[in-house]
């Protein structure tokens, strides 16, 4: 009897644990499309957020090249 | 009459001096200047002497060429010093620095010269290898007691600083002086002392910056005299050009333009932009001229950047911020014609401006506010820094918003 039980246990199929990759691949793919109005609207919102973040830097970069007569009149004359 | 720089009888005379217990000033035996103290006029020579002796250069022998015709000085002489009542000679002396003992240096030079018979290729390879290991650089000594340091090219400081940052001398270029038939090679950026006769700091900083641009763009040499003459060709806002009373930014731009480059001038208003511009220019191998103001005064100064110090451990960008690589910029190495070559200048933010902290060879520190940056660009570079920078910001912000949004979207879809 014991021997029988042991054999049965030994031949039982082992349940394999699926890896993260396998689990992820087995799920239906989430499509990302700009045709999706919700996706597009949220993406545009995100873009506006980033635009707001970089606008001061862009403006500062442009401003650094806008020179006036006062800039050109600076005299460089330090002596050692 | 005091002979300020050797005599014509010394033509072709070359002397070898061991540096043990003797300073460069002792070897050169310069006459005392007239209107400034010897200490003040020769402080740059002392700095050069100290620089070549420090590790890892370890200069052991100084070779002096007693009669050397320097292109820059002879031009200065032609337009200014030759018309002086004092008979300034038209030739200089040139000193070379080596990390070999005097006897070993003699042997090595003879060995390399004998290799000429083995073929040009072998000879040049040996010259390059010898220079790489033993040559520290050269300095032209002008016969001007008040400002003796002429064109000087010294080896750059090693990349490893040992202080958590790396030194990058992207603006250095190769120079090939010849000594006793041996072609020496040195990588550095030329420097010279402020000379109030022909060139003030503005001219000298432009001259240094154009050294690099010349090699990068294969264009002609601009001497200090040529720069001052071209700068004062159309406008003289401060009167006569020589003796040099300094240049205006307008005149500096005129000089750059007339020498075949495009002057790209920027006002340094916002710290991040200024730092980005410095980083971009130096890492592109274009030496920018930094225009600085001594806070609380009307003293403005110009220096040329030779390299920079960047942090060893760079932080990667995340999805929540745009990180410009210039954030790694720790210091700039500048050629200051009042003090010496390869001076370390740390940068710091004060309110919105960029301030430069110069560590002088005397141990003192000076703080300057960076007001403008002048970059001599090749005229075929059509895009300005602002255009490139804004295009880059647009691109990166679009990528960031897409990456961040996609991550959020997928995260929500999976829940």
Largest interface: A-B, 33 and 60 residues
Report the span from N to C terminus of chain A: 105 Å
State the separation between the terminal residues of chain B, measured CA to CA: 94 Å
User: What value does the average pLDDT of chain B take?
Assistant: 90
Question: What do these coordinates show?
Answer:
The complex is a heterodimer of chains A (80) and B (415). Chain A is mainly α. Helices cover 60% and strands 2% of the residues of chain A. Chain A is built from 4 helices and 1 strand. The mean pLDDT of chain A is 76. With 415 residues, chain B is of the alpha+beta class. Chain B has a domain at 8-155. Chain B has 11 helices and 18 strands. Chain B has helices at residues 24-28, 38-41, 43-53, 71-79, 102-114, 120-134, 201-217, 224-231, 249-258, 271-283, 385-414, and strands at residues 14-18, 61-68, 92-98, 135-141, 149-154, 165-168, 173-175, 178-179, 182-183, 186-188, 247-248, 261-267, 289-293, 300-311, 329-336, 340-350, 353-359, 365-378. Chain B has a 6-stranded antiparallel β-barrel with strand order 13-14-15-16-17-18, surrounded by 4 helices. A 5-stranded antiparallel sheet of chain B has the order 1-2-3-4-5. In chain B, strands 7-10 form a two-stranded antiparallel ribbon. In chain B, strand 13 (289-293) and strand 14 (300-311) form a beta hairpin. The relative contact order of chain B is 0.11. At the A-B interface, helix 3 and strand 1 of A face strand 11, helix 9, strand 12, helix 10 and strand 14 of B. Strand 1 of chain A pairs antiparallel with strand 11 (247-248) of chain B, so a sheet runs across the interface.
């Amino acid at each position: 009897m014991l021997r029988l039980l042991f054999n049965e246990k030994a031949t039982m199929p082992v349940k394999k644990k699926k890896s993260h990759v396998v689990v992820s691949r087995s799920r239906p793919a989430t499509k990302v499309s700009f045709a999706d109005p919700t996706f597009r609207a949220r993406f545009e919102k995100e873009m506006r957020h980033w635009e707001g973040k970089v606008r001061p830097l862009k403006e500062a970069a442009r401003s650094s090249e806008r020179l006036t007569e006062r800039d050109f009149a600076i005299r460089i004359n330090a002596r050692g | 009459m005091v002979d300020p720089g050797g005599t014509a009888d010394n033509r072709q005379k070359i002397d070898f001096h061991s540096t043990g217990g003797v300073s460069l000033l002792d070897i050169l035996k310069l006459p005392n200047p007239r209107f400034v103290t010897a200490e003040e006029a020769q402080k740059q020579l002392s700095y050069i002497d100290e620089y070549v002796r420090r590790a890892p250069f370890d200069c052991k022998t100084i070779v002096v060429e007693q009669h050397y015709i320097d292109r820059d000085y002879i031009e200065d002489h032609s337009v200014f010093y030759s018309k002086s009542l004092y008979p300034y000679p038209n030739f200089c002396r040139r000193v070379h620095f080596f990390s070999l003992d005097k006897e070993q240096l003699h042997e090595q030079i003879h060995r390399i010269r004998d290799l000429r018979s083995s073929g040009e290729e072998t000879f040049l390879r040996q010259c390059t290898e010898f220079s790489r290991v033993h040559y520290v650089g050269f300095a032209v000594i002008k016969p001007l007691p008040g400002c003796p340091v002429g064109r000087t090219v010294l080896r750059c400081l090693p990349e490893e600083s040992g202080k958590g940052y790396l030194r990058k001398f992207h603006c250095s270029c190769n120079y090939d002086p010849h000594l006793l038939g041996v072609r020496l090679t040195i990588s550095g950026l030329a420097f010279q002392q402020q000379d109030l006769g022909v060139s003030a700091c503005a001219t000298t900083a432009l001259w240094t910056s154009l050294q690099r641009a010349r090699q990068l763009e294969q264009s002609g040499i601009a001497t200090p005299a040529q720069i001052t003459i071209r700068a004062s060709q159309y406008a003289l806002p401060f009167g006569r050009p020589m003796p040099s009373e300094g240049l205006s930014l307008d005149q500096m731009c005129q000089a750059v333009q007339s020498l075949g480059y495009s002057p790209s001038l920027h006002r340094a208003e916002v710290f991040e932009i200024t730092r980005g511009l410095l980083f971009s220019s130096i890492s592109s191998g274009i030496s920018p001229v930094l225009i600085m103001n001594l806070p609380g005064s009307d003293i403005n100064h110009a220096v040329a950047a030779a390299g920079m110090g960047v942090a060893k451990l760079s932080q990667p960008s995340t999805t929540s911020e745009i990180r410009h690589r210039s954030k790694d910029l720790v210091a700039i190495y500048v050629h200051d014609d009042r003090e010496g070559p390869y001076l370390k200048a740390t940068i710091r933010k004060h309110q919105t401006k960029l301030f430069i902290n110069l560590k002088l060879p005397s141990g003192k520190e000076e703080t300057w506010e960076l007001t403008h940056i002048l970059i001599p660009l090749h005229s075929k570079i059509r895009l300005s820094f602002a255009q490139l920078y804004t295009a880059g910001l647009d691109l990166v912000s679009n990528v960031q918003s897409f990456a961040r949004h996609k991550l959020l979207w997928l995260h929500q879809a999976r829940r």
